């Protein structure tokens, strides 16, 4: 099969592009090197839907941030993933901070951010009583929100697959060739052959949404020369008993390294704090450190004093993709363009913050680029279904509905994860969905089994058994998060 468009990368950006393209007639695919979607930056970030006041005016970042933020409420309803419009606050502690807050307000106005205003310390403490008494004011962005980044990625990818997009998992790209003569006659773009560890994939257009490795993919085909440098950020997560600490997303005034350490509620009722900002060379460096965790705790304490460290239930690190030109200068914007030298090859690189927010708008933007490459308008997919039903939460429903679920499927009567009250029915549904879980972390991200206080200490053996049964594989073949992350090595007797 020759695909009209092959998307390299199954993160939030690749998933949104695929879902947007699935609205049209054509053959589309996602090529993902991991065993699941959302296995890179998309699973380890702040989960913030930014209002859009931070990006410099007249940049793609600014344009697509504001557009993407406006799309999330309806998309969350249609695709059945959690989104909360909780608003954000950029907190000032000094007069200099307040001057910076005013500049952010003016930038937000220039970017077209709605419901944006500067508030004084009195109003700030009424909104957030736990905030430090030293705080003297803030920028309030009422349009900001929070989302589960991996749940959103799964929802977009699943809806794309429901509408005919092919998902290739554990399929790493090793090389790309372009034949200028054969194929692609309608646009003159030529035909790309994508060499993977499994088989060759041919496509008329290629979208490079490979995140941290977008520079490597671009170089394979001789397209734009840029470099992605990783910036690692550490976080900690508090037990949901600390949910009252903050209702808004709380930023400190940003510096040259980014938006700084934030404190925010999550859509699941926890409190998240981070990230740090450590530049390095290793794109796979997701370890946490004692120094990094101390830094997060110290800096978050400036916003909310006396955060109970004993209630930290997990820590993790994510890596952001910062784009630099070949001469070493920072790009300072998203790279989203058909390559000037390689027709039909679209780079979508340097998608760092606010990439999660902008992703739905990036999907629309890229679809328009590809339409121009084709030289003719897309025909609508008459079978497109723009809604998706996710997994119904047993924990969040009432007793009457719980009884009904158990009557319909007795597996809902078996609690597997006691911390989060996740049933076997939900876990099986996550495995059998159109983009189903194939390892423990996949189940965890889709159902929250293992995300509670014990961090899967009790439920992981049962989840392993369920994965073995439903996937039809030996328990020794069940993995935690792809690769060689096998849970068991054999029988003890």
Provide an overview of this structure.
This protein has helices at residues 12-21, 60-79, 95-111, 121-127, 149-162, 214-220, 290-303, 355-374, 399-408, 424-432, 440-447, 460-471, and strands at 2-8, 28-31, 48-49, 83-84, 88-92, 116-120, 137-141, 145-147, 166-168, 173-179, 191-196, 200-208, 226-238, 249-252, 262-265, 271-274, 278-279, 312-325, 335-338, 345-349, 415-417, 422-423. The chain is α+β, with helices and mostly antiparallel strands. The termini are far apart. Residues 182-188 have low confidence and may be disordered.
Quick gist of this model?
The protein is an alpha+beta fold. The protein contains twelve helices and 22 strands.
Integer average pLDDT: 95
Radius of gyration: 23 Å
Number of strands: 22
Number of helices: 12
Largest sheet: 8 strands, mixed
**Topology-level CATH name of the largest domain:** FAD/NAD(P)-binding domain
Q: Helical content, roughly?
A: 25-40%
Helix-strand category: alpha+beta
What's the domain count? Answer: 3
Q: Which residues form runs of ≥5 with pLDDT under 50?
A: 182-188
Secondary-structure arrangement, i.e. CATH architecture of the largest domain: 3-Layer(bba) Sandwich
User: What proportion of the residues form beta strands (DSSP E)?
Assistant: 15-25%
Q: State the CATH class of the largest domain.
A: Alpha Beta
Distance between the termini: 49 Å
Question: What form results from the Cα inertia axes?
Answer: globular
Topology:
Elements lengths: L1 E7 L3 H10 L6 E4 L16 E2 L10 H20 L3 E2 L3 E5 L2 H17 L4 E5 H7 L9 E5 L3 E3 L1 H14 L3 E3 L4 E7 L11 E6 L3 E9 L5 H7 L5 E13 L10 E4 L9 E4 L5 E4 L3 E2 L10 H14 L8 E14 L9 E4 L6 E5 L5 H20 L24 H10 L6 E3 L4 E2 H9 L7 H8 L12 H12 L22
Parallel strand pairs: 1-2, 1-12, 2-9, 5-14, 12-20
Antiparallel strand pairs: 3-8, 4-8, 5-7, 6-7, 10-11, 11-12, 13-16, 13-17, 13-18, 15-16, 19-20, 21-22
Helix pairs in contact: 1-5, 1-8, 2-8, 10-11, 10-12
């Amino acid at each position: 099969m020759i695909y009209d468009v092959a998307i390299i990368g199954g993160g939030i950006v690749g998933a949104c592009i695929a879902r947007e393209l699935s609205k049209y007639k054509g053959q589309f695919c996602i090529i993902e090197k991991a065993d699941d979607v959302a296995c890179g930056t998309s699973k380890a970030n702040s989960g913030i839907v930014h209002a859009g006041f931070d990006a410099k005016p007249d940049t793609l970042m600014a344009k697509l941030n504001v557009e993407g933020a406006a799309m999330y409420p309806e998309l969350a309803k249609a695709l059945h993933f959690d989104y909360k419009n909780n608003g954000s606050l950029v907190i000032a502690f000094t007069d200099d901070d307040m001057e910076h807050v005013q500049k952010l307000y003016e930038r937000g106005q220039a970017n077209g951010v709605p419901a944006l205003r500067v508030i004084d310390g009195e109003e700030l403490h009424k909104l957030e009583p736990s905030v430090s008494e030293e705080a003297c004011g803030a920028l309030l962005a009422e349009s900001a929100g929070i989302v589960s980044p991996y749940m959103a990625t799964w929802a977009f990818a699943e809806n794309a697959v429901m509408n005919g997009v092919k998902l290739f998992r554990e399929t790493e790209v090793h090389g790309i060739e372009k034949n200028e003569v054969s194929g692609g006659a309608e646009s003159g773009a030529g035909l790309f052959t994508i060499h993977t560890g499994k088989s060759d994939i041919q496509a008329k257009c290629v979208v490079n949404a490979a995140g941290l490795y977008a520079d490597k993919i671009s170089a394979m085909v001789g397209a734009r020369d840029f470099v992605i440098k990783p910036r690692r950020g550490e976080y900690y997560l508090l037990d949901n008993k600390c949910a009252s600490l903050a209702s808004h997303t709380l930023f400190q005034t940003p510096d040259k390294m980014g938006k700084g350490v934030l404190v925010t509620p999550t859509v699941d009722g926890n409190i998240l704090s981070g990230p740090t900002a450590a530049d390095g060379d290793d794109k796979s460096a997701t370890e946490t450190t004692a120094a990094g965790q101390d830094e997060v705790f110290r800096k978050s304490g400036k916003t909310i004093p006396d955060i109970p460290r004993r209630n930290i239930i997990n820590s993790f690190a994510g890596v952001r993709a910062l784009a630099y030109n070949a001469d070493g200068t920072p790009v300072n914007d998203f790279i989203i363009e058909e390559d000037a030298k390689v027709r039909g090859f679209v780079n979508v690189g340097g998608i760092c913050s606010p990439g999660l927010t902008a992703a739905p708008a990036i999907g629309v933007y890229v679809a328009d680029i590809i339409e121009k490459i084709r030289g003719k308008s897309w025909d609508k997919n008459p079978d497109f279904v723009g809604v998706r039903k996710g997994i119904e939460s047993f924990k969040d429903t009432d007793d009457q509905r719980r009884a009904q679920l158990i009557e319909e499927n007795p597996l809902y009567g078996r609690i597997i994860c006691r911390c989060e009250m996740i049933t076997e029915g939900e876990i099986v549904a996550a495995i059998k969905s159109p983009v189903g879980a194939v390892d423990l972390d996949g189940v965890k991200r889709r159902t929250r089994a293992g995300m509670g206080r014990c961090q899967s200490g009790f439920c992981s053996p049962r989840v392993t058994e369920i994965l073995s049964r439903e996937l039809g594989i030996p328990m020794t073949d069940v993995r935690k998060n792809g690769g060689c992350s096998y849970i068991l090595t054999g029988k003890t007797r």
